[in-house]
Design a protein that fits this description.
Layout (H helix, E strand, L loop, with lengths): L11 H15 L5 H7 L4 H8 L15 H22 L4 H23 L13 H15 L4 H21 L35 H9 L21 H19 L4 H24 L12 H24 L7 H7 L2 H10 L1 H12 L12 H22 L7
Helix pairs in contact: 1-4, 1-11, 1-12, 1-13, 2-3, 4-6, 4-9, 5-6, 6-9, 7-9, 9-11, 10-11, 14-15
């Protein structure tokens, strides 16, 4: 094992983990759901479809871990960023200006990407980038705090957010379900106290029915079809705070064994708390509204994933195995924009130049895989060219 008492400013395992997360997002173009529809009896394609989709409400798939992992890694990177800026003799005022600028760019970029192919600006704030942007200034402030204060802030965030939902009244017998996009007998509704976290009948939904209508819209906002909400940026800040703590430990690690043990114990505690709250009916594990239990559960997953990449890439020196992910992870903003904005353009370009049925070489059932794989290849080659040319998009 390598001595990592003094870790480099750029930790390869973090880039590899970030690249893995972005690859999962980019791989949506493979459209496993379409293949699963063509083979309804296949357990394999049903499994692949499940893990490339968000669960309807309660629970977790691999795809559900993309956003919390990306948010967690924002926190992990912050101690390194602050140390780098301090080494350049930047004062706190300049650092705050950069923080506010970065926050605004993330929010506006998220809105821009969600407005593509729309007839007017789609003011929406549940996108990954906008959620991070809304909480980033608070995360930066916590970067100056002690670890004890950071844990206290995390607890305050989760407890207050849970209290907000718990105090919001449940739908009565005369409730108009048409304004929620769901029905009273929807199979994924929770019962008892946990019903305070049901889809589009909760405190965050009520907030958005006011907040979202402050912006120009084609028609008044009633609900988000997926149940997502603006206020999820608050518990997302909790996820970023867990990442901030993980990043501080990573940066100051006395040894790999010390760090991995601390990550494992923390993950175990987070899992136990999340599952306890969930199965006691106090707080369900729901990604779409980022319940406090989800913050704890997904945080535990993020600690384990970071541990795995750290052990393989940095401790055992297997960086070359993950070069293809590091190419993506070192340019995550570019990867995000390319994946979100250019996939359909590349697909249509292939149809123009290669023919309408170029992807049916293995039959129509596998056409989504063929076109998706080609799109992924083109996107990765663009990122690889940027990597070789040392073109990195930073905010």
């Amino acid at each position: 094992m390598k001595d990592t008492a003094t870790l480099p400013q750029r930790v390869s395992s973090v880039d590899a983990y970030r690249g893995f997360v972005m690859f999962l997002m980019m791989a949506e173009v493979l459209r496993f759901g379409r293949v699963a529809e063509a083979f309804p009896e296949s357990a394999f394609w049903a499994f692949m479809d499940f893990h490339q989709s968000h669960v309807e409400w309660v629970g977790c798939s691999l795809h559900d871990l993309i956003q919390p992992s990306f948010s967690f890694l924002v926190g992990v990177a912050l101690p390194y960023s602050m140390a780098s800026r301090t080494s350049k003799n930047q004062n706190v005022g300049v650092m705050w200006l950069h923080t506010i600028r970065r926050s605004l760019i993330l929010i506006l970029l998220g809105i821009f990407l969600r407005s593509m192919h729309s007839e007017q600006t789609n003011f929406t704030f549940e996108d990954t980038l906008t959620q991070i942007g809304l909480g980033y200034p608070i995360l930066f402030a916590l970067g100056f705090a002690t670890e004890k204060i950071q844990w206290a802030a995390l607890s305050a965030i989760l407890i207050s957010y849970a209290a907000l939902f718990a105090m919001y009244p449940l739908p009565g017998s005369d409730f108009d379900w048409s304004q929620t996009g769901t029905t009273a007998d929807w199979e994924h509704h929770l019962k008892g106290f946990a019903a305070h976290w049901n889809k589009n009948t909760n405190a965050a939904w009520a907030f958005d029915r006011w907040f979202m209508n402050l912006f120009p819209r084609e028609k008044p906002f009633q609900y988000n079809g997926g149940g997502y909400s603006t206020l999820s940026f608050i518990p997302t800040l909790g996820t970023m705070t867990l990442g901030l703590i993980a990043g501080k430990w990573l940066k100051s690690a006395m040894s790999p064994e010390w760090l991995l043990k601390r990550y494992a114990v923390t993950a175990a505690i987070l899992f136990v708390l999340a599952l306890l709250f969930h199965f006691m009916g106090l707080n369900p594990i729901v990604k779409r509204i980022w319940t406090p239990a989800w913050t704890l559960f997904s945080g535990g997953c993020a600690f384990l994933l970071l541990s795995a990449f750290y052990f393989i890439v940095d401790v055992n020196g297997r960086k070359s195995w993950f070069f293809w992910l590091i190419v993506i992870g070192t340019n995550s903003i570019a990867a995000y924009v390319i994946a979100d904005g250019f996939g359909s353009f590349i697909r249509e370009s292939f149809k123009i130049h290669l023919g309408q049925h170029y992807d049916a070489v293995f039959g129509e059932s596998y056409a989504p895989l063929v076109s998706g794989a080609l799109i992924l290849l083109i996107e990765w080659l663009i990122l690889h060219w940027m990597y070789k040319k040392k073109i990195f998009i930073k905010i």
